[in-house]
């Protein structure tokens, strides 16, 4: 029998589960697939936006868009076109219901658990082909899958369920050790973007008056890119800003000095808050 068994909505950057359907079947195969769900959720940022993992009698399919991944487990004989049409419906409804700000700032696992109601209703529809035939048009999805088939994830890439690390993940970790330039920072917040603009403004004001602007540009660089000793460099840069403004005390009024030092302190705080993405927490997905 070909059916959809479960589905989850997961944040791509850290694997945080946002919502999920209730798994009623607790067979050995299902428990094994839950391990694969966990492993995939930690690697979503490294994988293409449409993938399939075949795990014996079950398939795991997922699509990713706008920092959120929609993952489902189905039997091996469930049609691909229906699987990805199901995921496409989940994606459209989730984007319509929740804005990006909510998904980016979510802290608790399953904080959108009420979305499970829509997942269950849609799953029931897709498990009953008669109810689908008059409600959806599969021709577009068939053409899309034909032109851009899902990437087939191999067990060699994923690593085994008992914790053996694959060569794929070893290469990624090795690359991070060789060069810190490949380390990714957390997504920029609104306050971080404001700080970046204010720092550029301070640099431009310094250049217009014929002063230096290197410390403001250095703050912008540290805010955008990851480097070794990044926090130490940011505090040293702020110290340089304070020293430079003390040197220019007689050429600026108190409001100008206050503005430049305050912006420097604000950007330093944003650099400290925007840390590198670490290992994804082991959420129980």
TrEMBL record:
<dbReference type="GO" id="GO:0006888">
    <property type="term" value="P:endoplasmic reticulum to Golgi vesicle-mediated transport"/>
</dbReference>
<keyword id="KW-0931">ER-Golgi transport</keyword>
<keyword id="KW-0597">Phosphoprotein</keyword>
<keyword id="KW-0256">Endoplasmic reticulum</keyword>
<feature type="transmembrane region" description="Helical">
    <location>
        <begin position="229"/>
        <end position="248"/>
    </location>
</feature>
<comment type="similarity">
    <text>Belongs to the synaptobrevin family.</text>
</comment>
<dbReference type="InterPro" id="IPR043546">
    <property type="entry name" value="Sec22a/c"/>
</dbReference>
<dbReference type="GO" id="GO:0005789">
    <property type="term" value="C:endoplasmic reticulum membrane"/>
</dbReference>
<keyword id="KW-0812">Transmembrane</keyword>
<dbReference type="Pfam" id="PF13774">
    <property type="entry name" value="Longin"/>
</dbReference>
<dbReference type="InterPro" id="IPR011012">
    <property type="entry name" value="Longin-like_dom_sf"/>
</dbReference>
<feature type="transmembrane region" description="Helical">
    <location>
        <begin position="254"/>
        <end position="273"/>
    </location>
</feature>
<comment type="function">
    <text>May be involved in vesicle transport between the ER and the Golgi complex.</text>
</comment>
<dbReference type="GO" id="GO:0015031">
    <property type="term" value="P:protein transport"/>
</dbReference>
<keyword id="KW-0007">Acetylation</keyword>
<protein>
    <recommendedName>
        <fullName>Vesicle-trafficking protein SEC22a</fullName>
    </recommendedName>
</protein>
<keyword id="KW-0813">Transport</keyword>
<dbReference type="Pfam" id="PF25970">
    <property type="entry name" value="SEC22a_C"/>
</dbReference>
<keyword id="KW-0472">Membrane</keyword>
<keyword id="KW-1133">Transmembrane helix</keyword>
<dbReference type="InterPro" id="IPR010908">
    <property type="entry name" value="Longin_dom"/>
</dbReference>
<feature type="domain" description="Longin">
    <location>
        <begin position="8"/>
        <end position="119"/>
    </location>
</feature>
<dbReference type="InterPro" id="IPR059071">
    <property type="entry name" value="SEC22a-c_C"/>
</dbReference>
<keyword id="KW-0653">Protein transport</keyword>
<keyword id="KW-0175">Coiled coil</keyword>
<feature type="transmembrane region" description="Helical">
    <location>
        <begin position="188"/>
        <end position="208"/>
    </location>
</feature>
